[in-house]
Amino acid sequence: MTTxxxxxxxxxxxxxxxxxxxxGLRGVAALVVILYHVFECFDWSPAPHGYLAVDFFxxxxxxxxxxxxxxxxxxPDGRKSLTMKGFFRRRLIRLHPMVLLGAFVGLLCYxxxxxxxxxxxxxxxxxxxxALLLNMLMLPVLPGMSADVRGNGEMFPLNGPNxxxxxxxxxxxxxxxxxxxxxTKILAFVALISGGLLAxxxxxDGFLGVGWSVADGGFWGGLVRxxxxxxxGLLMARVFxxxxxxKSFWICGTTIVAVASLPLLLGELPAWQNGLYDAxxxxxxxxxxxxxxxxxxxxxxxxQRVSRxxxxxxxxxxxxxxxxxxxxxxxxxxxGELVPIAKxxxxxxxxxxxxxxSLLLAWLSFRFYDLPLRRWLTAFEKKWFFRR
Length: 388
Fold this sequence. Notes:
The protein is mainly α. 65% of the residues lie in helices and 1% in strands. The protein has helices at residues 20-39, 53-69, 84-112, 125-136, 162-177, 184-205, 218-239, 248-261, 263-266, 271-293, 301-320, 322-332, 344-384; strands at residues 3-4, 298-299. A two-stranded antiparallel ribbon has the order 1-2. It is globular and about 60 Å long. Residues 1-14 have low confidence and may be disordered.
C-alpha cells in the first residue's frame, strides 16, 4: 500500500501541497551537519565535507520557495493573493522563532561556559548582551567589534550557523524584490554567472567553507555560496517535471551522506581537487538530488513517517544545536590557537551526549515551541493581515 506524497498538505503552506520526501532529505542533511560539527575540532572526521550540507539547504530552499510562492503573487487583475509584505511575514513566521530561541540558548551556554573568549579573556556582560541583540535581529557582528564574544570572527558568535540563515534572509529579500520578476532565461543567466563565481571561489580557496565570517571577504563568499544554489533552485521550480521515481528518498539520503564522507575513501585531496569536488557537488550533485527527491510520486507509509519525522526536526536541529557544541569544545579544552587538547577517543561519551542532547532539544523545541508558536502566528497573520 502506498500513499501519495505530493497531495500532503504542509502545516503552513495554505492549500498548496508540498514534497514530503524533500523534508526528509533536509533532515538527513541536518544530521550530517551535526556529525560534521562534533568532529570539527579533531584531526579526523567521518564527514569531512559535512559543511556542504548547507549548500544543499540553499538549493532545496530555492526550489521550495519557487514552488510554494511562484504563482501566488498579486497580479493586476487581483486574482493572486500574495503581497510582498505577506511574503515577508510568512518567511519570518517560518524562520525567526527558532532564530530567537537559538540566540537565547546560545546566551545560556556562553554564560555556562564562563563568559570568556577562546583565549580565556573575560567579556563584559554588556558586550554579550549586544551580541544577543544582534543575533535576535539577524545583524552580523563585524570584525573587530567587542561583541565578537568568542574572538574568532564569527558573524553570530552565540550561534555560529546563523550565518547561513542570514544569507537565507538575503535570498528571500532578493527573491521578493527581483528574482521572481526575472524571465526564466535571465534567471538562468544569473544562475550561470553566480555558478561561475562559486567555482572560482572554490578553486581559489580549495574548499567552500566560507561565509561564516565577514572578515577577509567572507560576506561576498557567503553571498555567492547562497546565490547560486538558491537561484538554481528557483529556476528548477519553474521548469520541473517529475521523473516518477521510486525509492528516491533512500537513494538521495545515502548520497548526501556519501558526499560528506567520500573523500575518506580517496585519501587527503590536494587543494585544487578538493575545490573541484566541492564545486561539482553544489553545481551538479545537489540539484540532481533535489530533482530526484521531488520526483517520487508515491511512498510507503514507513518512508513517509521517517521523512516527516526528519523534516520536522531538520530546522530546529540546525538552528539550535551549535550552542551545545560550544559547551563540548569548552569541555575538551583548547590552547590559544584553538587546537583541541583532548582526543576523540577520550571524549566520545561527551560527543555522543551532545549529539543525542541536540536531537532531544530539537524535538522539544519543535513540539512545544516552534510548532505551536508558528500556528498561532499564522492564525494571527491570516486574521489581521491577510487580504484577498
